[in-house]
UniProtKB/TrEMBL annotation, chain A:
<protein>
    <submittedName>
        <fullName>Electron transfer flavoprotein subunit beta</fullName>
    </submittedName>
</protein>
<keyword id="KW-0249">Electron transport</keyword>
<dbReference type="InterPro" id="IPR014729">
    <property type="entry name" value="Rossmann-like_a/b/a_fold"/>
</dbReference>
<feature type="domain" description="Electron transfer flavoprotein alpha/beta-subunit N-terminal">
    <location>
        <begin position="22"/>
        <end position="178"/>
    </location>
</feature>
<dbReference type="Pfam" id="PF01012">
    <property type="entry name" value="ETF"/>
</dbReference>
<keyword id="KW-0813">Transport</keyword>
<dbReference type="InterPro" id="IPR014730">
    <property type="entry name" value="ETF_a/b_N"/>
</dbReference>
Automatic annotation (TrEMBL), chain B:
<dbReference type="Pfam" id="PF01012">
    <property type="entry name" value="ETF"/>
</dbReference>
<feature type="domain" description="Electron transfer flavoprotein alpha subunit C-terminal">
    <location>
        <begin position="239"/>
        <end position="314"/>
    </location>
</feature>
<dbReference type="InterPro" id="IPR014731">
    <property type="entry name" value="ETF_asu_C"/>
</dbReference>
<dbReference type="InterPro" id="IPR001308">
    <property type="entry name" value="ETF_a/FixB"/>
</dbReference>
<keyword id="KW-0813">Transport</keyword>
<keyword id="KW-0249">Electron transport</keyword>
<dbReference type="InterPro" id="IPR014730">
    <property type="entry name" value="ETF_a/b_N"/>
</dbReference>
TrEMBL record, chain C:
<dbReference type="Pfam" id="PF11982">
    <property type="entry name" value="DUF3483"/>
</dbReference>
<dbReference type="InterPro" id="IPR017896">
    <property type="entry name" value="4Fe4S_Fe-S-bd"/>
</dbReference>
<protein>
    <submittedName>
        <fullName>DUF3483 domain-containing protein</fullName>
    </submittedName>
</protein>
<dbReference type="Pfam" id="PF13187">
    <property type="entry name" value="Fer4_9"/>
</dbReference>
<dbReference type="InterPro" id="IPR021872">
    <property type="entry name" value="Csal_0991-like_N"/>
</dbReference>
<feature type="transmembrane region" description="Helical">
    <location>
        <begin position="66"/>
        <end position="84"/>
    </location>
</feature>
<dbReference type="InterPro" id="IPR004017">
    <property type="entry name" value="Cys_rich_dom"/>
</dbReference>
């Protein structure tokens, strides 16, 4: 079993400092749980966030130095010596952050893809069993043909960060052929402005009603009505 | 940074704009409580039928259990925004048929797709279903399933995609980029995905929601096999993922009632640090800065005063409900509803009420 | 006869010296220490002055130790002298006197555990000690006495035999048993890792920087400790003063500093001497085998023990052998964190946030000033100049502590001071990361903080956070950042003294001051806050544990994020002590203490920062 983890570099959304996205750390965890050789691949120059990602369990990272479409560059690199498993996070952080890259790569390589993976099992007859994490703690079992691409769920168990591994990682630059250029995204870019979300319920928010020393039965009735209004007792 | 949001009149207006209808219609009722469309008394008897719209906009809606949820309505609402007055909205319903509700939510046509199609075959099936409509835009929810389909569709079709659009009008879509530190405003792309609670659902006159035949799903070699969804029980759900958490604090002595009540309410159990320290609840149940930080929609705090470290654990909780003997407890200031009473009296009363109803 | 006595006493002494060399050979398997043996010159002074300064806090124990140790060693030296030089009766008489004193010492040693041994004392081999001491002192004392009066050989021989038997028993206790502290103590005092403690000026409490390029970071196996540190573990006499002072032990967490040091001492040996003191609370017995190259944590030491420590230094303050428990804990944490990534979950989150957001709580640095935004604090841009740089610290994110900072800023304005903050350029000082053993993150945060500070001009740094104070004042200099750093209580005290703030005592409920560990024990500052409180409040009391011996609130050393299981909470214990002192209000001077003590539920004394109390009492300032 040979696994490759796609690393995007990236920044922390709050601080803007270099940091690997949580999903990529989870992807490293999945790769390690698969056993066998695990390496990282990054399109671009070595970046600080890569070393931090390596601290979670990568011994070596190949930095592909080519100009053009990263999907094409990755596809060329991966088809040269195809691994059994390619793992990615849910999306990068600090660039376009669309989460499209693994899908485009899967389409180009013709490999199957599954997203939201929280755990993987052992390969049997060329099928890899995986567990997919769904909202509210729900889980779904699935099987996928190797070779394949898996996108890790952000909440999949993250391997611990070990400084000793981060400082020992071997990052080697790999010269690759340039790929076709892609058009820059349309539109105008500007600093983010937080917009309040719609609130989906008629129940009062914050600093609300206070019932001082009510009769227990009345208290129970009010509580129940309130929880109903919030839609918490639908099920 | 969680500063007070700045008011943006233009954005507010846009948000209050009820899609559909010839003239702009604003719903100002409850800026805080969102554009809940006021119950306009008796429903207008008319229904809009659209035979040959100028173009189509598709909305992919999940309805696995035959219910159209909030996010689904919002997805349809955004399709309506993009369709404007001339366009028609086709709902691509993945799951069981809910045609009537879909019409109310703004769809002119409905195509039903089986959930069982599976993720690998889904883009092919969707393209086949959408082919007769040649939609100008396809909107999906940025949910785990919707987001996955959208990206598969984009990769298969080569259509440009804008994911996680937070602000949408017919002329412009704004989405965060660069680690949510920047945003990009552009003309809406062919494919769009929509996070929850960003665009209001359709509030206009009911639409036809005419069912259309489902396409034949092209057969393909199985590369992925997906099993059934195993729902988590409230009791066994990871605290950080639970939508409804009921937590015990210092003021809870009757833990039998507490456990019974949490089971009846379908809430996941949490606890304050004091309770965990005392060994009355497992450490994994601890809510707070040093325990679990919640992502719940509702937090029912029983006998919890709300120490600062505890309140830090409520970071993203939308609704806090408190039962506490101290009127001046910090949790009361954070709660939408506070019952100032002894938990030992309120819990059995609520249990009795729930049992009496059930 | 003289030959017999020389043979007996000299033989025992030689055997003891051999035992020392055997121990030394083991300690030398640790990381090399420079100038260790040269430090032997310092031992008498360090022993007689510094060790006895601590021992003398308990006069009964000091008397016992002086008589027993003085008698055993003094008598032996004098007797040896008399026997070798053939001196007259007077020296023999002095030797007999010394042995007699030792005999009384032996009696006192016996009385210590009889009729009832205090729980903090170890049993086991210690129970043989009075007998061994008595045999040595009585036997040799009688022999010396007979020599002094010129008695015949007949009574001398059985006396020497008795003394010799006692000597052999002592030798066993010294070489293999708990009395090895006598031998190890010499080596430890010679190579003490914090020589600054003996200079008399200033304290030596800052952690030492780690060379991050070294192949092994921190400690995983005993051989990773330096030689003197290994000697320190052997130097523990199991007096239990540390465990009586340890807040984690009191709260029922899996830490007993005495058991920890004994475990580390045992970890060097495949067959450790049995430990007969109290273990850490509810720690399962680990079956691991020790050895210089065997892992410590998880093998012979329970993981939780490591993360329960609040780094409050109460144990260090109490230790008569001047052992550095906290350094040992941090060295072990460094090994776990940097080499294995084996931290507790909450700590791992805080460390990740420190790494990626330069803030252990994961908050936006620009939001640090939010709580004092209404005061319109000036922010010092790079290249800017001010008199005082106000370091806000982690507490600034907290609404409660915001009140303290607002009080402080208001007072500083009233006194007409010119000051500014770093604004969003203030990163975390790295205290939490460093205490949790993440030296790499600490050094990178420190480098960033130092360069931000160096880019501005100011005369001193003032902070209300003792943890930041300690790091900035005592730990940044080793990384190239030297500034005058002052705690806000020190600054306010100065302003009151200089008349720039005039206070009028307010009728108040009884106020007890809770000393922050990082201000008191780490920096020796215990008077300024008390002077301020005396000027601001009418009724101040002391808790039983206060000043340099105050008890920790439980908030230091990453303990809150590490979240180790406990029977009770440390702040609850501390609050109980405040109640016992009759306090209606607890004055604090640290954001950590504020948060921990405010977290105590139920009716309790109020919590106010010293700055808030001073603001309430201020009647006039320069601007009024």
């Amino acid at each position: 079993m040979r696994s490759v983890v796609l690393l995007s570099g990236g920044i922390d959304p709050v601080s803007g400092r270099p940091a690997p996205p949580s999903g990529e750390i989870a992807a490293i965890g999945l790769a390690l749980s698969a056993g066998g050789a695990v390496g990282g691949v990054h399109v671009g120059l070595p970046a600080a966030a890569l070393g931090q990602a390596a601290g979670h369990g990568l011994g070596q990272i190949a930095c592909l130095r080519g100009v053009g479409d990263p999907v094409a560059i990755l596809a060329a690199h991966l088809s040269a010596a195809p691994p059994d498993l390619v793992l990615a996070g849910s999306r990068a952080c600090g660039g376009e952050d669309s989460g499209m890259l693994p899908y485009l790569l899967a389409e180009r390589l013709g490999w199957p893809l599954l997203a939201g993976v929280v755990a993987i099992g052992t390969v049997a007859d060329g099928w890899l069993p995986v567990t997919i994490g769904l909202p509210l703690g729900a889980r779904q079992d699935a099987r996928i043909r190797l070779p394949c691409i898996l996108c890790a769920h952000d909440a999949a168990p993250a391997p611990p960060f070990v400084f000793d591994r981060a400082r020992r990682v071997a990052m080697h630059a790999v010269a690759v052929a340039d790929a076709e250029t892609i058009a820059p995204p349309e539109g105008t870019e500007r600093p983010y402005r937080a917009r309040p979300r719609l609130i989906g319920s008629a129940a009062p928010a914050g600093g609300g009603r206070v019932l001082d020393n009510p009769d227990p039965a009345e208290a129970a009735r009010v509580l129940l009505d309130h929880l109903r209004a919030l839609g918490m007792l639908d099920a | 940074m969680t500063g007070r949001p700045r008011r943006d009149p233009r954005a507010e207006r846009a948000r209050c704009l009820v899609p559909g209808g010839a003239r702009p219609r604003l719903v100002r009722a409850g800026w805080d409580g969102m554009a809940i469309v006021p119950d306009a008394g008796p429903r207008e008897p008319v229904m809009i039928r659209l035979e040959t719209p100028a173009f189509w906009v598709a909305a992919v809606v999940e309805a696995p259990d035959g219910r159209l949820d909030r996010w689904g309505r919002q997805t349809l609402g955004s399709a309506r925004v993009l369709a404007g007055t001339d366009g028609g909205v086709v709902a691509l319903l993945v799951g069981r048929d809910v045609a009537e509700a879909v019409g109310e939510a703004g769809a002119d046509r409905v195509v039903c797709l089986e959930t069982a199609i599976g993720p690998d075959a889904m883009p092919g099936a969707m393209l086949a279903a959408l082919a007769p409509f040649a939609p100008r835009h396809v909107v999906l929810a940025e949910s785990p399933a919707g987001g996955d389909w959208a990206r598969r569709l984009a990769a298969r079709s080569g259509w440009p995609i804008q994911t996680g659009v937070e602000m949408l009008s017919a002329r412009q879509a704004i989405r965060p980029v660069g680690g949510v530190r920047r945003e990009r405003a552009a003309v809406p792309a062919r494919l769009l995905t929509l996070p929850i609670d960003r665009v209001a659902p359709y509030g206009g006159t009911r639409r036809e929601g005419r069912p259309c035949p489902a396409p034949d799903v092209p057969a393909m070699a199985a590369r992925i096999q997906v099993g059934p969804v195993i729902a988590a029980q409230a009791a066994g759900m990871p605290l950080a993922e639970a939508p409804f958490v009921m937590a015990a604090g210092h003021g809870v002595r009757d833990f039998d009632s507490f456990h019974t009540l949490s089971r009846l309410l379908g809430a996941t159990e949490g606890a304050s640090r004091v309770v965990c320290d005392a060994g009355l609840m497992p450490r994994a149940a601890q809510v707070g800065a040093s325990g679990t930080v919640l992502d719940a929609r509702c937090y029912l705090a029983v006998g919890i005063a709300g120490a600062p470290q505890h309140l830090q654990g409520l970071g993203k909780v939308e609704h806090v409900v408190a039962v506490n003997t101290d009127l001046h407890a910090a949790i009361v200031a954070r709660a939408g509803l506070s019952i100032i009473a002894d938990a030992q009296a309120v819990m059995p009363a609520l249990i009795a009420l729930l049992r009496g109803e059930g | 006869m003289r030959v017999l006595i020389v043979g007996e006493i000299g033989g025992i002494a030689l055997a003891a010296a051999m035992g020392w060399l055997v121990l030394l050979a083991r300690w030398l398997k640790g990381r090399p220490a420079t100038g260790w043996l040269a430090g032997l010159r310092q031992v008498p002074r360090r022993y007689l002055v510094d060790v006895h300064h601590v021992v003398a806090r308990r006069p009964a124990a000091a008397r016992m130790h002086a008589m027993a140790a003085g008698g055993v060693l003094g008598g032996a030296a004098l007797a040896l002298l008399a026997a070798l030089l053939g001196a007259g009766g007077i020296v023999w008489a002095l030797a007999a006197l010394a042995f007699g004193m030792g005999g009384i010492g032996a009696l006192l040693v016996w009385r210590r555990r009889v009729p009832k041994a205090p729980p903090a004392l170890s049993g086991g081999a210690f129970l043989w000690l009075p007998a061994a001491l008595a045999a040595w002192c009585v036997g040799n004392g009688l022999a010396a006495l007979f020599m002094a009066i010129g008695a015949s050989a007949l009574p001398v021989i059985p006396s020497v035999v008795l003394g010799g038997l006692g000597g052999v028993a002592l030798l066993r206790l010294v070489a293999l048993g708990p009395m090895r502290h006598a031998l190890a103590g010499v080596a430890w005092l010679a190579g003490h890792t914090r020589p600054g403690r003996f200079t008399g000026k200033g304290r030596d409490t800052g952690l030492r920087p780690l060379d991050l390029a070294a192949p092994r970071l921190g400690v995983l196996v005993p051989a990773d400790f330096s030689g003197p540190e290994l000697a320190a573990f052997d130097a523990c006499i199991q007096c239990g003063r540390c465990e009586e002072a340890c807040p984690a032990f009191a709260a029922g967490q899996r830490l007993n500093p005495k058991a920890l040091i004994q475990t580390l001492s045992g970890a060097m040996r495949a067959v450790p001497p049995p430990y007969a003191g109290r273990p850490a609370p509810s720690v399962p017995v680990l079956q691991g085998k020790g050895g210089m190259g065997q892992p410590i944590v998880g093998n012979v030491l329970h993981r939780d023990t490591l993360w329960a420590c609040t780094t409050c230094r109460a144990c260090v303050e109490e230790c008569p052998m001047l052992i550095e428990h906290v350094d040992a804990v941090v060295a072990l944490r460094r090994g776990q964190t940097l080499m294995l990534g084996a931290t507790r979950d909450g700590a791992a989150q805080a460390l990740r946030a420190s790494r990626e957001r330069a803030e252990p709580g994961g908050r936006d640095l620009a939001a640090r000033g939010d709580m004092i935004a209404a005061l319109d604090m000036p922010v010092l841009p790079p290249g800017g100049e001010s008199d005082i740089l106000l370091w806000l610290g982690e507490g600034a994110f907290d609404a409660r502590y915001g009140r303290t900072l607002r009080a402080l800023v208001t007072l500083m304005r009233r006194a007409g001071l010119r000051f500014a903050t770093l604004g969003a350029d203030e990163v975390d000082c790295g205290d939490l990361a460093r205490r949790l053993g993440d030296e790499a993150t600490f050094q990178s945060l420190a480098a960033e903080a130092i360069s931000a500070l160096k880019a501005r001009r100011f005369t001193k740094i003032v902070t209300a956070d003792p943890h930041a104070l300690h790091v900035l004042r005592n730990e940044y200099p080793a990384l190239g950042g030297r500034w005058e750093v002052q705690h806000h209580t020190g600054l306010l005290d100065e302003l009151v003294r200089d008349g720039r703030l005039r206070l009028e005592r307010r009728e108040s409920t009884r106020v007890a001051y809770h000393d922050p560990c990082y201000l008191g024990r780490y920096n020796g500052e215990i008077d300024a806050p008390r002077r301020l409180l005396d000027a601001a409040c009418t009724d101040r009391v002391e808790m039983a544990r206060h000043g340099m011996r105050a008890m920790c609130c439980g908030g230091g050393g990453g303990s809150p994020v590490s979240d180790v299981d406990a029977v009770t909470r440390i702040p609850d214990l501390r609050m109980e002590q405040a109640r016992a002192a009759g306090a209606g209000l607890v004055a604090v001077a640290c954001p950590g203490c504020t948060a921990m003590l405010e977290g105590v539920t139920g009716p309790r004394p109020e919590i106010r920062d010293v700055a808030e109390l001073v603001l309430a009492a201020v009647v006039a300032g320069a601007m009024v």
